[in-house]
Write a structure and sequence with these properties.
InterPro entries: D-isomer_2-hydroxyacid_DH (IPR050223), D-isomer_2_OHA_DH_cat_dom (IPR006139), D-isomer_DH_NAD-bd (IPR006140), NAD(P)-bd_dom_sf (IPR036291). One of its GO terms (molecular function) is glyoxylate reductase (NADPH) activity. It holds the Pfam family 2-Hacid_dh. The chain is α/β, with parallel strands linked by helices. The protein is 29% helix and 16% strand. The chain contains nine helices and 14 strands. The chain has helices spanning 10-16, 28-33, 41-44, 85-101, 126-138, 165-168, 191-194, 214-223, 266-286; strands at residues 2-4, 21-22, 36-39, 56-59, 76-78, 118-122, 142-146, 158-160, 174-177, 202-205, 228-231, 236-237, 240-241, 253-255. It has a seven-stranded parallel β-sheet, covered by helices on one side. It has a five-stranded parallel β-sheet with strand order 2-1-3-4-5. Strands 12-13 form a two-stranded antiparallel ribbon. The chain is elongated, with a radius of gyration of 20 Å.
Length: 299
């Protein structure tokens, strides 16, 4: 039995009804019998004790850093990576271009051009690959990727390993942080790396706030007003993403309230849920998935 904490689109039922799906009026009895769970990471902790037969978890979200991995060592976990790639890539470029041209700033300032420059993209999964495609074909940019693996290697002119961050950062006219948050990436962009950005670099974060050290990005932006920083993701305080930051006081900053993905668009959410259902159907039918989560990355 598949248990979903959200009402699924009709397309999902077409894919999954052959396995048995319950997505409304859930009872404790339903949960006790459920072997497969579809939900958001933030809801998992409250459901685990009620689902003793749970063996497979499919998240609706691309990011899984909110999951209680210490309690999931015997559960197969699949993310929804790639489901929000186009929407988030659009948003990343919206921030980059708004900063380059200083949109909505009530004073005349120098504008930057991205055409023909170099884009450095940290994280080359679905989102990073979509950002790279726009950079390469939309702005004729050289694209440098930094990642353990590359989902669409054809969009990257240079492919570097995460151990080569110090080599990559100084190359970027625009640097995009599309990293997932795990034990390797938490705080990876600290002052020591941020200070390597060349003059007039634009840095955009659409991954997770905690991949950048908050105090260090504020410090470097104050020290170097030629740098510009945009983010859709902020740092967590007391377990919740907190959008209050002194970054808003800086002229060389632009931000949005984590609206790049599904939270601000019903259609994006619908497509993402269908993507999660399709991934789950492939796994249950053929044992195939592109989104298996390595729990060791988080423990």
């Amino acid at each position: 039995m598949i248990i979903s904490t959200e009402r699924l689109p009709e397309e999902c039922h077409t894919l999954l009804d052959k396995f048995g799906v319950k997505d409304s009026n859930l009872t404790d009895s339903d949960l006790r019998e459920g072997e497969v769970l579809m939900t958001w990471p933030s809801k998992v902790a409250g459901l685990l004790e009620k689902m003793p037969k749970l063996r497979l978890l499919q998240t609706f979200s691309a990011g899984v850093d909110d999951l209680p991995f210490e309690k999931l060592t015997k559960v197969t976990v699949m993310s929804n990576a790639g489901a929000y790639s186009e929407s988030v890539a659009e948003h990343a470029w919206a921030l980059a271009l708004a900063l380059a041209k200083r949109v909505n700033l009530r004073k005349k300032v120098e504008t930057y051009s991205v055409m023909g420059g170099t884009a450095v993209i940290l994280g080359a999964g679905g989102i990073g690959s979509e950002i790279a495609k726009i950079a390469k074909f939309g702005f004729s940019m050289k694209v440098v990727g930094v990642s353990r693996s590359f989902k669409r290697p054809e969009f990257f002119d240079v492919k570097l390993h995460p151990t080569q961050l110090r080599e990559a950062i100084p190359q970027g006219d625009v640097v995009f942080d599309a990293l997932p948050l795990n034990k390797e990436t938490r705080g990876v962009l600290n002052y020591d790396l941020l200070r390597l950005m060349k003059e007039r670099t634009i840095l955009v974060n659409i991954g997770r706030g905690e991949t950048i050290v908050e105090e260090d990005i504020i410090r470097i932006l104050k020290e170097r007003p030629d740098l510009r920083f945009g983010t859709d993701v902020f740092w967590r305080r007391n377990g919740r993403e907190n959008f209050d930051s002194s970054l808003w006081e800086l002229e060389n900053f632009a931000g949005t309230y984590h609206t790049a993905g599904a939270s601000a668009s019903g259609e994006v959410l619908r497509r993402a849920m269908i993507s999660a259902c399709a991934n789950l159907e492939r796994y249950l039918s053929r044992g195939e998935t592109n989104n298996l989560v390595r729990i060791s990355d988080y423990l």
